[in-house]
Amino acid sequence: MNNNNELNELKQSYNVVDDDFKTIYNKFNDIIIDNKNKIDNYINKITSLTLKNPSFNPSQYCINIKYNDTDDTDDNIYKMLKTYKKSINNLDAVKREYKDYTLDHSYHSVKQRVEDYNKNANKELQESLGTSGKSYGIVVYDFTDIDIDNYIVSANPYKMKSGEIKRTLTFNLKYSGSYNEFDNNINDINNEIKDILRDCYDNDIIIDLGFDKILVISQLPMYKYFNLIENDKNIFYEVKAFPYTDKRYYKYIYKNKEDYERDEFGLLNDLDYDGKIEDKRYKD
Question: CB within 10 Å: which end of the chain, N or C, has fewer?
Fold first, then answer.
């Protein structure tokens, strides 16, 4: 076989030295079968969460068993140990995926989990690594029920050195001008968004307005990032638009609104905006 080096590494990793084939098979096969069943169970749970789940690709987690219990060749042992390793990795990955689908990713829920994590973290290790702890990661603002009078989406032009005019998509919250309950929360939400940005530059902040597109604050140019976190009066957030079915984000926002209730985000079509939005509904 051509995988002798990898086979030896696998044997060393799993403490398989001079064991005979039957011992190796008995040691790993039951665990592989158990992991496979657990993976299939998680896959079924995820696919049953929504009637239409376009962003979830179960095939990436599935375990195919190609070894057998009678072949004592190195090639068969290699297949078994590779399958064992894959079953462990895939089980961990599908567990994380399931957690993403089921956890509440609103600001206050994520903030509490981050605080709990940092409270129990290894402070010495954090200091040695130069980190203040766990970042927020993904935070979702469910604005599916707020009045359109409480936000502005605009396309802002800027001139490149070449003279070409480019446009960036910007979102900001605003007061409606007439009393509504959301008016009282706008300052608090702006402060929360700045706190998320201060905590970690790589956090993704998802703004779900209930349409077929969502807006995401992510990977801002550094000068805009610092201007946002240092200037309290700057509440204009540069965003990118994605189909709500995008596989990176669907698992965080699908609970906010039923698929059939999501209307076209016509406002984006009305803006003089040259950004491209690719529908990844049918892509893995």
Answer: C
